[in-house]
Amino acid sequence: MWIQRDISAVVKKAFAQFPILVLTGPRQAGKTSLVRHLFPKAGYVTLDIPREAEAARLDFEGFLRSHPDPLIIDEVQYVPEVLRHLKVVVDRDKRPGRFVLTGSQDFTVMAGVTESLAGRCAVLSLPTLTLAELERMDTPGDADQLCWRGGYPELWQRPELDRDLWIGSYLASYLERDVRNILNVGSLRDFDRFLRAAAARAGQLLNLAELARDVGITVNTAKSWLSILETSRQVFLLEPYHSNAGKRLVKTPKLYFCDPGLLVYLLGFLDWPAVMKNAAWGAVWENLVISEARKHFLNKGKRPPCWFWREAQGDEVDLLVEVGPRQFLALECKAAAQVDAGALRGAASVVKAFGPEAIGRSAVVCRTEGAYPLAEKGKLVAIPLGGADGLHAFLNRNS
Question: In the chain, what are the domain boundaries?
């Protein structure tokens, strides 16, 4: 069963304009399946096969004779020298649509892209499935299912797969392959504990010293391991909005997981009702909403213009989406079906700092079945996460 991906139009547009398209993203997000589906006439080779990797490393000209363009080169992080060779190749022939490169270790791939392919390639990042993508399936998924099962395509294409077994195996292979390849982690057991400790802090201000102390590692090690989680697209940091507004703002980022299913699995819940009854439910919902907003922009080929706002005295907004210079959409995440205008009172401090035009529209993303107004003229509304009047529709209309 094929799941139509929102990023498809951007991928095809980029391939038609650049000699090289680089598609990164977490393991099992569907990168290979997507590009092979979109470009069925292109050749395909994976550098995960030692024989192919060795051929590309030792004789790239011969490698290309065996695999002429248009060509999809999968798992390019295993032979980063390929990026340097491709610079020479495309400088000789700048025709668009020659190569598609995919990779799961963003640091390895992007280091080579920055050094060798700047100006010669388009770079896109494929996230795991969004709720909008699941809602288009023959048997649509909902927000609770996305949060519990996660957005990895194989779990939805093969509903018979056991969720716990699949995600557990994913983590085991991720630890063994990516973590060992990116950095020489002395103890995978400690790294697994680090992952779970990070999950317990989802939606919170990042405190590396506290995180390191709980796992029993140094702060520098915690910083290095967090970088691994970021570069392999397992977590992301949401930064506070820093523009000088004459106020002392919190300068510490907040930690979120890219895929909500992985977060819920790491928190150790046995079933979905247990999630909703737990004190962590609010943080899980916030992680789900903010990760969906981030995916929305990644699927449009954009760098997510996403921030949070928190003043030292406590006024805060869960998510600011920058739509212009000092102009924002303000969003709050509430795991309740009914909310009132007080749920977004922190937005007043943004208006006070930047003026009455700073916030065009605001929304509280909650568990309502349909949108409803919270203020006159529709400038503040309560919206569901999914559906025709949900978060993705709100962002499409206003950003």
Answer: 8-125, 131-287, 306-398
- The two three-digit tokens of residue 341, written as one number: 């205008």
| Tens-digit pLDDT profile for residues 245-260 | 555 577 899 999 999 9
Distance between alpha carbon 21 and the CA centroid of its chain, in Å?
19
How far is the C-alpha of 68 from the C-alpha of 382, rounded, in Å?
Answer: 53
Question: What's the angle, vertex CA 232, arms to CA 307 and CA 142, rounded to 5?
Answer: 65
- CATH number for the region 8-125 comes to 3.40.50.300
Are 28 and 34 in contact by the 8 Å Cβ rule? The answer is no
Yes or no: say if 177 and 188 are a contact pair by the CB < 8 Å rule. no
Sequence-distant (6+) residues with CB within 8 A of 121 are 18, 19, 20, 21, 22, 101, 113
Euclidean distance between CA atoms 219 and 209, whole angstroms: 6
Could you report the per-residue pLDDT of 265-317, keeping only the tens digit for each? 999 999 999 999 999 999 999 999 999 999 999 999 999 999 999 987 788 99
Position 200: which residue type? Answer: A
CA distances from 107 to 26, 135, 232 (A): 12, 32, 8
Report the CATH architecture of 131-287.
Orthogonal Bundle (1.10)
| Strand order through the sheet with 43-46 | 43-46, 71-74, 99-103, 20-24, 121-125
DSSP 8-state secondary structure symbol assigned to residue 321? E
CB atoms within 10 A of CB 91: 10
Question: Pairing between strand 99-103 and 71-74?
Answer: parallel
Contact 129, 156 (CB under 8 A): yes
pLDDT at 3 over 60: yes
Task: Give 329-382 pLDDT, tens digit per residue.
Answer: 999 999 999 999 999 999 999 998 899 899 989 999 999 999 999 987 778 999
**pTM greater than 0.90:** yes
Beta bridge partners of 327: 324
